[in-house]
Description:
Blueprint: E1 6-10, H1 14-26, E2 30-34, H2 37-46, E3 51-55, H3 63-73, E4 78-82, H4 87-95, E5 100-103, H5 108-123, E6 135-138, E7 141-144, E8 149-151, E9 157-158, H6 162-173, E10 178-179, H7 181-188, H8 199-210, E11 220-223, E12 227-230
Parallel strand pairs: 1-2, 1-3, 3-4, 4-5
Antiparallel strand pairs: 6-7, 7-8, 8-9, 10-12, 11-12
Amino acid sequence: MTDNPHILVVEDDRDIGQLVARYLTTNGCRVSLARDAREMDKVLAASRLDLVVLDVMLPGEDGLSICRRLRARGNLPIIIASARGEEVDRVVGLEVGADDYVPKPYGARELLARIRAVLRRAGEAPLRTVGGNTVHRFRGWRLDAGERSLTSPTGARVTLTPAEFDLLVVFCERPGLVLSRDQLLDLTRGRHAGPFDRSVDILVSRLRRKLGEQDDANFIRTIRSGGYAFTAEIEP
């Protein structure tokens, strides 16, 4: 995480945007503001960003559509902020690629804590194994924790969000162990975990798709009333 991360706040309410910008600036962030997708695209074209805080209810292209578009372009961390705080909205936010979801109204301190947590996951090396190994190989796949990269058996780079990457590292470091949802949240997000129950399930579903799984028996097995277990053998 950089000392002065550049945060883009996409918020159509000018007063809210300015309040958030002032608080984040006071706490060491550089902040750009955009009121819709068009303004956001201009900032993206002109600046290097570290994270986007994205409102859902925007004029024109809505936040979920923007999130999906940004995720298709790369791994820029995204926090969705919305007054639509129902669980289904939170789940949809995760499904389209958000790294976290904060319901409005939110406190500025909470938003800052979530920003810092997401940036840590995006920028820090993940948890190390006892032996200090940072490269994990399984069934032709190669996960490099140092480079934060995943390579398929065909040699293609597979794009993972920071949350997806950290979850896969946790699985690779604990092959065969049954890990509950709470344990997975603690290991990947710590005390800044989001308040939605299905976040781990959504991340597992996304990992399975990216690993090319056709069912839950290939790499990540669902344990009834238990959680999940990574069943692939980690190669030396």
